[in-house]
Design a protein that fits this description.
There is one protein chain. The chain is mostly helical. It has helices at 3-14, 19-26, 33-78, 81-99, 102-111, 149-187, 193-221.
Amino acid sequence: MPTRQRHTEELPAAVSMTPSELARAIGRFDGDTSAMVTAAVRTAERAFKELDACYDVIDKASETGQAIAARLGALLTAEAEEDIGPELDALEAVSDRVRDTDRARLLLHRVLGQEEAAKRALPAVCRLAASDLPSLPSSYTDDAGFDDLMAMAAREEELAPRLREVHAERLRRVAAHLVRVVEQAAARGFADEAFARETLQEAHRAYELWLHCLAERRRDLG
């Protein structure tokens, strides 16, 4: 439901107060119930207008976050490592803009006597560690020993195709995880501070893991 439509439908509930409740909320009007109701409606309208402005920021943050996630996917595929960090920095800036609305949203929801809609159950932020990735094949991990360096070199050459496959898979998994985490944050518009912070921290960890995997591949394959 569009935000403005939802707010319009919530307006009657926001002002369905007794005269005494209205008096306490917006001041006394010497028994003028009509004036109190009018003032309450105007107060609610202003509050909803301010909330709309806050939710516009959140909606824009969600759109921008999704666009950043798409760019990250392309940059990771192209292995444009120097361009990925700035995109994550831009994501932090998007989240910061939403944080600027936090106090206003909290206050406005209190004025309207309702819990903020963002206080809903949020999914857990999945972690990805190096130990979750497939192990790199190596002659050093073979159960059988080697009599000389020539035999070891031959075994390394035999393992080379599999090594390339595993390096590619490790990079693919980490890249997919990084993009998925950013999409998860963007889908909720960074509206929940703790969830946004946790997802962005995991995005940075995933980026560091991706760089580590890239360095390992270069070490092994050149």
